[in-house]
Amino acid sequence: MSQPELNGIVAVDGPSGTGKSTAARGLAHALGAAYLDTGAMYRAVTLAVLRAGAPLDDAAELTRVARDAHLVMRTDPDSPGVSLDGADVRGEIREQEVTKAVSAVSAVPEVRELLVRRQRALIDTATRPSGGIVVEGRDVGTVVVPEAGLKVYLTASADARAHRRTAQDAAEGRPADRDLVHADVRRRDTLDSNRSVAPLRMAEDAVSLDTTELSLEQVLRRLHELAAARGLLVTNERAGR
To answer: Is 20 annotated as a binding residue?
Structure first.
């Protein structure tokens, strides 16, 4: 049965809690594409920093830890994740300690330069010679792959984002305090938007999509329509689909 597949790069950016991960993974799955969560890379490096006891204000030490950390990213949308020094850390990188420190670590220019190189290598592998990948983060369309065929910037109200984050934390067995999550959402917005290197912002040629009142199915339908409109879909015979 013929099914459309992604041929190219879709960049999905936006602040925390807008549904980037769920939407990006869902689109990648539907279109037979790879999936990359760039934020998970920064979180994994932050975990390495915390394990090493490195001071968050020592850029040279943070860069050394990032350089030495052995990260392996899985780009299968049905089984994504990240390993640090041989161990799966998907759950650990979402803990509150990492969440509080990740903005400081990701603001270091040398750390970002190092991880952007790794991200581009993964994207190049996934799209060569004619594959597709959906990449999500905060600077994908502006820094990592400004040449992406489709750039989408997801937004949502602060209340909606806090509610989603709280629900996600509860579902994954983490402490879920909506007031604390709401404060953290605003804190991360401020830090990410005002950092000197690769601040959180929408690319000039990105499509803005407010997900506050949209279901996941509606978001996925819109992303599919946008990818088709940009000529990024090809039809192949996919057994069993």
So the answer is: yes
